[in-house]
Amino acid sequence: MKKIRAAVVGCGAISHNCHLPGYAADKNCEIVAVADPNDKNRKSATSKFDIGRAYASVEEMFEKEELDCVSVASPNAFHAEHALLALKHGCHVLCEKPLCATKKNAQAIIKAVEKTKTIFMTAFTHRYFRGNEKVKKAVEAGKIGKPYMIRVRFAHEGPIGGWAMSNSFYQRNQAVGGALFDMGIHAIDLAAWLMGPIVKVNAMTATLEKEIELDDNALLQFQFANGTLGYAEAGWTSRQGFAGYEIYGSEAAIIVDYGAGTVTQMKGRVKPNGERLIRKKVLDTKALEGGWPAELKHFIQCVRKNEQPAADVYAGVHSLQVALGAYESSLKGKTVTIR
Question: Whole-angstrom Cα distance, residue 231 to residue 152?
């Protein structure tokens, strides 16, 4: 089998923990090159993953290398530029979330994907956790009856401290958005993946603790196309508490606890007097298996089979629209319709 020639744009934490090890784990893939203006990050990537060539210029890398696929893992502000450059050179693309920073850039990416007919995947990692895949199947099979509410909480202390290799997450000219763009975009995609397209969003964002120019907390309310409701919390100031999500339906509820790594189904009822007649059943105790390795494996399979992934360019655009709508809602104090 001919080896897939891969490259990674951006050598920060997500590349070191997801993209580079994902390609390296596949014996039929070859990491041909990486590109990053940061000399320290480039050297760390090439030494750790035995990559022969590293470029300070993304343009130079594309000019000199013959590539099959590219991971775009640069800061958010550069996603569109680097994705469009990769598509121009006929490469399949795995683009980190958010897809880009503006609706105009999103439309340009869509046009380029449709013109080149290349594989394009948005890096929504949470779709590839084993527990979430089970929940998706259970909801589609009607195991909880008619779904009518989802609650998502994705929060931690923030990207600095044992994770990020620079402070780019906190710089507006690089990250564009804060916790909403970082954690909230995952919550938006997961909610839409499980419940259907989001048609309205109402939100509040705030900077509650960190001395940064971006939001470190966000609260979002959703209405889905089928009329059901949901909400999400995304934050960079959480040192404790629940992380995961809950889906409530007419017949049962499913709770996914990321901290415990469990998926639990709950059936029964709570009477008006407070009496609880609830039966619990643990569906999975290793819910967080998969994730980054599974994401890269899926992308590589899509490239080999020439098949578009479910988390395609349109999924990336939808979540971006909702996130931008949430920022508009917070700024203007009104509900925003997603068109």
Answer: 6
| 17: its two tokens | 């923990």
Give the separation between CA 81 and CA 94, rounded to whole angstroms. 14
pTM of the full predicted structure? 0.96
Residue 141 backbone zone (phi > 0: left; psi -120 to 50: alpha; other: beta):
alpha
Q: What is the pLDDT along the chain (339 residues), one digit of tens a residue?
A: 789 999 999 999 999 999 999 999 999 999 999 999 999 999 999 999 989 899 999 999 999 999 999 999 999 999 999 999 999 999 999 999 999 999 999 999 999 999 999 999 999 999 999 999 999 999 999 999 999 999 999 999 998 766 788 889 999 999 999 999 999 999 999 999 999 999 999 999 999 999 999 999 999 999 999 999 999 999 999 988 999 999 999 999 999 999 999 999 999 988 888 888 899 999 999 999 999 999 999 999 999 999 999 999 999 999 999 999 999 999 999 999 998
* Whole-angstrom distance, CA of residue 16 vs CA of residue 193: 27
CA distance 237 to 70: 33
Query: Are the beta carbons of 180 and 322 closer than 8 angstroms?
Result: no
Q: How many CA within 13 A on the CB side of residue 209?
A: 12
Identify the helix (H) or strand (E) that includes residue 284.
strand 276-284
CB 314 within 8 A of CB 110: yes
Can you list the domains of the chain with their CATH numbers?
A: 4-118 (3.40.50.720), 126-288+320-337 (3.30.360.10)
